[in-house]
Write a structure and sequence with these properties.
Blueprint (H helix, E strand, L loop, with lengths): L1 E7 L2 E7 L5 H8 L18 E4 L2 E4 L12 E3 L8 H12 L9 H14 L5 H7 L10 H14 L2 H4 L49 E9 L3 H9 L1 H7 L3 E7 L2 E10 L2 E14 L4 E9 L6 E12 L5 E12 L8 H25 L8 H16 L5
Parallel strand pairs: 1-5
Antiparallel strand pairs: 1-2, 3-4, 3-5, 6-12, 7-8, 8-9, 9-10, 10-11, 11-12
The chain binds FE2/S2 (inorganic) cluster (FES) (2 copies).
């Protein structure tokens, strides 16, 4: 194994890698950045294209160990990038994708073309795109999307100056293809506030991370007491079922459903609470025996007073999914899912506090459809 330190989508990443590991495998399997696709694995089709130090490169024929100190940008790393936003919209409007397999590589190459060649015509675009193959033969739409994007670029870009490059968002990476994560409905004040801190915890190599928060009408002391009532917390968490709780050692089950895949994770966790800091950490793992998915995770929380009353609960999720469910581990999707989960959890917790009786757990599958519906509405520009 070789120690590797590089930057991916604006975040520092350190990992141990086998010298034979390709960058594509490292991104997909170790970093869970599955937006980078693998087609031919011979450097021919372009599906695996990423940016290395700003230049398009084939990640299937690049060894990860060769990237010590380099900057890699994948399709997940363009949140806030104005050119990529235009390209995504143009791909959508010009029907520039069918199955979408080539699309992430196409978008990376397309962005390189429109920022480098402001005066490119159809012939030049086709020539520049020759290294990206579309199995659905959707080239007409793809070329039209690039022409449309060039036509909509700011004047300075048309005159040959590349538009200001948006810095890549630090991971967890931005949602892909027009999906923009929004704050959950649990707390309208979320949008105005900074995201939760990192709790001083370094990210685990190969794990994904989500920072979030929600608010409660109850004060910090009452919230702290609520968080100590483990059975009540479990009842408020959609899909959770607590089987044993003894001295901070928990045993239980978590049911989730992502599309056609349903999983029931049986697992154990350890809860550590620190009263002085009003913070806690739940750490554990579990597996779904029928489906073969496995999950490891850590939830850190801290309760803070909120200006004007009530409390703010800051959360940090670190997790790793393996097996069939890992295909849904794209940070944007999981972030949306986690936000809706937290919204339901906060509602249940408050209802339980008010009624002195905990709310019935929701089915996590319901949340999946809610997340999916929100995303479909966003995709078609109807808010959400
Ligand atoms: S998968 Fe890398 S070029 Fe085809
Ligand atoms: S849209 Fe299917 S491979 Fe290009």
């Amino acid at each position: 194994m070789t120690r590797l330190a590089l930057r991916i989508n604006g975040a520092a990443v350190e990992a141990e890698v086998e010298p034979r590991t390709s960058l594509a495998d490292f991104l997909r399997l170790e970093q869970r950045l599955t937006g980078t696709h693998l087609g031919c694995e011979h450097g021919v089709c372009g599906a695996c294209t990423v940016l290395i130090d700003g230049q398009p490169a084939r990640s299937c024929i690049t060894f990860a160990v060769a990237l010590e100190g380099r900057e890699v940008r994948t399709v997940e790393g363009f949140d806030g990038d104005p050119v990529m936003a235009k390209l995504r919209q143009a791909f959508h409007e010009e029907h520039a994708l069918q199955c979408g397999f080539c699309t992430s590589g196409m978008l990376i190459t397309a962005r390189d073309i429109v920022t480098r060649l402001a005066a490119a015509d159809e012939r030049r675009i086709r020539s520049e795109l020759a290294g990206n193959l579309c199995r659905c033969t959707g080239y007409m739409g793809i070329v039209n999307a690039l022409l449309r994007t060039l036509g909509e670029m700011p004047t300075e870009a048309r005159l040959g100056k590349a538009p200001a490059e948006a810095a890549p968002a630090a991971r967890p990476a931005a949602p892909f293809a027009g999906f923009t994560a929004k704050p959950s409905a649990a707390s309208p004040a979320q949008a105005a506030e900074a995201p939760a801190a990192s709790f001083g915890l370094p990210p685990e190599p190969g794990w994904s991370r989500i920072a979030d928060h929600f608010e409660l009408a109850t004060g910090p002391r009452e919230a702290w007491r609520l968080f100590g009532d483990v059975p009540r917390i479990a009842r408020a968490m959609p899909g959770a079922e607590l089987e044993e709780s003894e001295g901070g050692k928990l045993k239980g089950r978590m049911r989730v459903a992502f599309g056609p895949i349903k999983a029931s994770f049986a697992g154990t966790a350890t809860l550590v609470r620190e009263e002085a800091a009003m913070s806690g950490r739940l750490e554990g793992g579990g597996s779904d025996e029928r489906g073969g998915s496995r999950a490891k995770g850590r939830v850190s929380y801290r309760i803070l007073p909120r200006a004007g009353g009530g409390s703010r609960v800051e959360l940090l999720f670190d997790y790793q999914l393996q097996g069939p469910l890992a295909q849904f581990a794209r940070p944007g999707l999981v972030k949306d899912f986690a936000q809706q989960l937290m919204a339901a959890f906060a509602r249940n917790l408050e209802q339980g506090a008010a009624a002195a009786e905990a709310a019935a757990p929701l089915k996590a599958g319901t949340l999946f459809w809610s997340v999916l519906w929100t995303r479909i509405k966003r995709l078609f520009g109807r808010g959400g």
